[in-house]
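Record minuted for completeness.

…
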Amino acid sequence: MLKQIISNINWLIKFTNGKKNEFIIWPLLTILYTLGTVILTSIISAYVVYVFSNTVSYLRLVFLLLLCFSIGLISWLNNRLHTKMFWENVYLRMDITARDAQAFLLEPYELSLDEGRQEMRQTSIHYGFDDDNSGVAMFFPELIACLSSGVSLVVITFLMSHLSWIFPTIISITVLSALLLMRKYTKDRNYLNQKVEDLYLKNNYYNRIAFSDEASQTIRLYNYVSTMKEKISNSSRKIEKVENQILKKRLINTLSLQTLTLIRMVVVYGLLIWMAIKSRISIESFTFYFTLCANIELLVTNLWKNSRLFLSANADLTIGRKYIDQSDKYINSNKKIEETLSLNPISIEFSHVSFKYSNSCQYIIEDFNLKIESGEHLALIGKNGAGKSTLMLLLMGYLKPTAGKILINGKVENSARRRTRFSTMFQDNIVLATTITNNITIGRRTQTDKLKDIYRKTELSKILGNTLTGETVLTKYINPSGIELSVGEIETLMLARMLYKNANAYILDEPSASLDAIRENELYKTIEELANKKTVIFISHRLASISLSDKICLLDAGKIVAYGTHDELIKSSNDYQQLYQSQSKYYQEGEVL
């Protein structure tokens, strides 16, 4: 367990962002405060007796006041320290929360879809850093409280040993016995609490069934009333029996602790009184040691309470760090790669690519081969579930091929590098709760001239008009005065976002799914005008993009069932003919597909 505790301390220190020394000084100062308060209060008590047992002088009274002032000052400083470190601990939890988000965003996309892994992440969040009762929130405060109480008890025992070996012996025996009794009581109480919770679960079920309208007819029909009454009565008696056991355990534990306290007080205080009567110690020393021993009970109670909470926090933190620890390799391997400086279009080739999820035996894509020439516009069409989006996730490096390879300009590139080459426009467009400019640049350096050019090309400046600017905040999530854009305006904003990124190729994955046929056609024409010098892939189950495409690839169940130009496929592919004929009338009539 000690190894685990040290490991967790080192793990938390990594997230202190240069404030490591503060988290080291914090326990030292808290220990000094607790110990100093115990000793100073004992000294003050002894000094009061000394002052009033002798001739009272102003100098002695001033010194007494200084001692009292010092306790007040130390208490004030400790409160300031406690407040400061409380917030530092909050910031620590926030940093770890941010690290969790970073780990989630940088781990392989396939892992983010795995239910088991995401369940592990949610468990880690819950136990590790979800709230003020989580492992991270409780770890340092409870550890420091344990250390301060423990050190104070050791020092008191050591100071008492100067009088007689009996004092440290009786203090050690009674304190350790009290801790063992508290440990046993806590274990028994947790077991009985779980037992009574299970019984309440059954009892609540019986009561719910007994008084529900749905079950009342069945209970009457089969004369089940007496049986149900017996079950409720038996369940209630069992609950009462277990709760009596809990009460009995509590009483026994309380009496045992009080007995140990009584034994310690009788022996320690009795021996102190005897030594004072026999003049073995002065009245001032008697007062000092008497006051010192009065702190033992509170320190023992605090030590047990804080140690129990600390061990719980340590166990929670061990669970809570599991997800982040496993994701560190992805964080370290995903160093930022600058966007490509060359804006030339690229060629793309899928060579014998197959893909299936790790927990599945069925291939979504199998032995897929396709080459897209540099500057070519390809329409990737097919019904929902044909494998179109999966292919694009493979292309952009979010998924890793089970077999085969993907070539860019005839070469294999790693996933991070491939992602810099593409700019995308998706079906589900995310409008961030920030300014229009930030929604377009997405964290990239704002280039004013480039931004103005994109505003002009996409006609976004017309949408903004005279009332809105690039600094206008969108959505009302954060700013109540934020602007809500229409569906068409959002599509234009997403087009501007796609064009702002330096990219060699554009991927448009169902970007017009929420638009009617006429607006969809207009959007694709705008895209064609702005992206005519790039490699472009249109993904859709609708056919608005075919007139803009050099080639059309029809997919079904992860396989190419037709490939060629529109004219070629109309003549050679029955599947394409049926799909085209079923949709073309909507575009002619201007209806929504």
About this structure: Residues 225-277 form the longest helix (53 residues).
